[in-house]
Amino acid sequence: MTLLPRDEFPHPRPDDTAGHWKDTWWLICRDSDNDVTIQAHLEVAPQDAESVVRSSVVVRHHGVEGSRMEYGTYSDTDSDIFGTDNFTIEVADARWTVDKHLILRGNVEPFDFEIHLRGSFPAADMTEIAPNWHPVDEKTGQELRHVQQAMKFTGALRVDGSATAIEIDGLGIRDRSWGWRVSQAMHRYGWQGAFFQTPEYAGSLSLMNVADDPAVPGNASGWIADANGLQGCSGGEMVTDATGRIARLSLEGVDGVAAAVTTTAQEVAVYFPFHDIEGDEDQMVIGTVEHHMTIVDDRDAAGWGLYSVARPYRSHPMRGANFRTV
Question: Which of 145, 197, 221 is nearest to 301 (CA)?
Answer without folding.
Answer: 197
